[in-house]
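Re: the request from the purification team.
They wanted to know what the chain is likely to look like in 3D before they choose a buffer screen. I agreed to run a prediction and write the result into the notebook, where they can find it.
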Amino acid sequence: MHERISAGETSFPGASLAELGDAWRTLAPSRISFVSPTLLDHDLAAVRKLIDAGGYRVETITHPFMPGQPLSHDEASWLAPRARLSRLIDIAQQIGARSIYLLSGGHGGLDWEDAAAAFCACIAPCATQARSAGIALAIEPASPLHADLHIAHSLRDTVQLAEMAGLDVCIDYFACWTEAGLRATIERAAARCAIVQVSDYAYGDRAYPCRAVPGDGAIPLRRLLEWTLAAGYDGAFDLELIGPRIDREGRVAAVARAAQVVGTMLHELGA
């Protein structure tokens, strides 16, 4: 597997630590990523044992910062999510994770600018903590179908929110590949890009989750990879493969094939 490819836990939803360990031993990545409940709700010693056994670098952690909770200017509503993220930052530092990327919290009844201001105020102490710990704290674009969880539904809005909050960016090609002016937005994002997520979309899929193995769909991945590398991004590319297509093929087989396709593209592009 190409050294810059990360095999993410997001591709193995519901897997136990033992099942993750088996998958990663088969795939042999140098970089892996976690979902935050695995780290927050399990024995950290077992997680560290898994990491050490494979000699993995923990590239990133995905975290639903305020799951199902709308953004609000009520500071009391921030306390529990902020405390949980603070604990995750400590854990990330302990296991050597490079970044955490998150969803902001839902729109609720606020307009975008007001919701963004609430998010910036809410996240500020955690942003300071993450910088001190050497952890990139990032936000990603997500479909409007996740409006109960997030307010940034394009890469442009994600970069704007990150700039407002003093955070980094996760570029998810699946969520942004159809945007106008995408190359310019990738160039704008590159200086604060912490992680890039790679998957594909097949025309005709209408229900989430509906990701496809890179190369099986319509996303012009080689072009997006080329733009991202040309913009100066030198980090990892995390595979996030979920949905019926992945389940039918088998998760390990799908990730292995994705790693081969993306790795070939990266080699050809000189990465």
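For the purification team: The beta strands are 5-8, 31-35, 57-64, 99-103, 136-139, 168-172, 193-198, 200-201, 211-212, 237-239.
Please add any questions underneath this entry.
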